[in-house]
Design goal:
Elements (H helix, E strand, L loop, with lengths): L12 E3 L6 H6 L7 E6 L8 E6 L5 H13 L3 E6 L6 H17 L5 H10 L6 H7 L9 E3 L6 E3 L18
Parallel strand pairs: 1-2, 3-4
Antiparallel strand pairs: 2-3, 5-6
């Protein structure tokens, strides 16, 4: 890739993607040490968090400079490893899926679900909430909710693909 034809060799190149591998992109540029992910959230002017995504090739100087740049922008940077979904999407998407299941199963209305999330879940970090509830971290085993088969599965396995809620669209 001729990415440095228009930028100095010591330039830091960053991608805002949350769906492509930052490591793969870094592997095809001429200076992978200077490549990093900077995942901004929408709307950018209202969302302070930014995931700064390092690869195995990202230099320490690129990481330090990128974190400082994010802070100068008034953002709250968190350093994350290049994994599918980074942190926010990996935590958020299962929660969204559960919200859809809750609506689909008639547990509450859209308004009730939104109020529950906004008033309770958004006020405290998930790990803090688990600690307050007396659940020690890390757990030996995690109980996942599968509507057809509630079972205990080892950490890191995650939801089976078919557990995604396929709520029919309203006509």
């Amino acid at each position: 890739m001729k990415n440095y034809e228009y930028a100095p060799k010591d330039a830091i190149l960053a991608s805002n993607t949350s769906s492509l591998s930052i490591t793969y992109i870094a592997s095809v540029v001429s200076n992978p040490e200077g490549f990093i992910g900077m995942h901004f959230f929408n709307p950018v002017h209202r969302m302070p968090l930014i995931e700064v995504v390092k690869t195995p090739m990202t230099s320490t100087q690129t990481i330090v400079t990128s974190l400082a740049f994010a802070r100068r922008l008034g953002k709250t940077p968190i350093l994350v490893k290049d994994q599918c979904g980074f942190i926010v999407n990996r935590v958020l998407l299962p929660m969204i899926n559960e919200a859809v299941y809750t609506l689909y199963e008639g547990v509450g209305s859209v308004e009730a679900i939104d109020t529950a999330v906004r008033e309770q879940l958004d006020r405290v970090a998930h790990s803090t909430l688990l600690g307050l509830a007396g659940v020690p971290l890390p757990q030996d085993r995690i109980v996942l909710r599968d509507p057809d088969n509630a079972e205990t599965v080892p950490p890191g396995i995650g939801w089976p693909q078919d557990a995604q809620c396929n709520m029919p669209r309203r006509a």
